Amino acid sequence: FLQAEDGIRDPLWSRGLGDVYKRQGINAEYMGILFMAYLAILTLFLLSLTFTDGKQLICKDNNTNCNAQDECCCPDKGKCSCCQKSDSCCVDGSFTWCCNKDTTCSKTKVNHCVPKKQCADNKTMCDANTDSCCCTTGCICCSKSDQCCSKNLDKWCCKSGTKCGSTPGKCLEEGTCEDEKTKCLSKLDESCCCKNSTECTCCKDAKEKCCFGVCCGKNAKCCKKDGKSWCCADDKKCGQTVGECPKNDACKDNVTVCKPNEKCCCGDENCSCCATDGKCCIEDGISWCCKGNEKCGKYPDKKCRSTHQCSDGTLCGDDESCCCTGNSCTCCGNKNNKCCVSDYHKWCCGYYDYCCTGGTVVWCCPKTMRCGALRNCLLYTSDAADEGLGVDLGGRRIIKKK
To answer: Which of 62, 104, 142, 348 has a CA 20 to 30 Å removed from the CA of 185?
Structure first.
């Protein structure tokens, strides 16, 4: 190559010869770049699996030519095969073969295709003879002798003689627990009992059962509270406190024990044993019992009150009266009370009170007043009583027109 040196004459060779420029050698850096580009293109060519040569595909073994509508099916080492694009490419060592869309590659025989079985995801196809579907949100194929393992969205297969680990893809030897360090001996009928994935122990299958990481007797009760577990004998029950096992018939205070024909009646302060047909009364955290035909009174003055039955079955105390409208009754607090009713409402009034109604509303007015409108009672004034003048409870004067 000849290259001018930016238009500057050489001071020695051009002396007396006009504008003669230096003769430059080939640029070594430029040639290096060209050489590296050549190597890169050559490398890509050698590593490519196939390339098109007109209407032919030359596979990576450089011996097999496939039609452009086919695909090369090649092992790592060995001769390639030509498969249709809808076929499955089967590889076993140095052997390759194709299976059509209705079959899949045999895992036991070379150059053999077996019928497919469609899994629940309607996508995965498994060998109908040797495989089974292992599915969560998607599916994979496991050998029929393998165990299908899943956790969350992960799924994997564990071979016969192993079991699923707590970590996705992990298979444990038979007898190894989830913590991957505790080993239970199947010869001694032991089984793993794990509190979590890091804490495990071994229980004897024939005599014990697992209770959240604790081995309990076969007939014992398994109890758990606040992340802790314990066992209670069959004739006892789990208590309110960790490790506590009160008797089966103990009330929730774990102290009071009722007879078979009694029931627990518990307030915040105590528990009582009531007859099964009796009433449980609770007030201010104190509990007591009344007979089935009695009403709970006020504690401690009068604990129970005898009753009589209203027309709808409501039980009122002997010192109370029934006040009913339609098929509904209520109890008036005093037997001398007056029951005032409208079409839909009822109200307990004093014996000498007036019953006032307005539409469907009912209310009471003392005998010194008279009924007003909308739950109002009107007060007569002493100086205008004869004239029919009145004052309502709000202080407004009411004048009755003659």
So the answer is: 142
- Between 209 and 381, the higher pLDDT residue: 209
Where in 221-341 does DSSP place strands (E)?
221-225, 228-232, 262-266, 271-275, 279-283, 286-290, 294-298, 302-309, 315-317, 321-325, 328-332, 338-341
- Give me 11's structure tokens: 């001071």
What pTM, to 2 d.p., does this model score?
0.35
Q: Which residue has the tokens 């196939």?
A: 50
∠ at Cα 153 (151, 158), nearest 5°?
50
Helix, strand, or coil here: 108?
coil
CA 24 to chain centre: 80
The tens digit of pLDDT for each residue in 308-367 reads: 888 888 888 888 888 988 888 988 887 788 898 887 788 899 888 889 888 788 899 998
pLDDT in tens, 2-42: 444 444 444 554 444 444 444 445 566 777 788 888 888 87
Decide if 130 contacts 145 (C-beta within 8 A): no
H or E stretch including 115?
strand 113-118
Query: How many Cα neighbours within 13 Å face the side chain of 212?
Result: 11
Instruction: Kindly report, residue by residue over 234-267, the tens digit of the pLDDT.
Output: 888 888 888 888 887 788 888 888 888 889 999 9
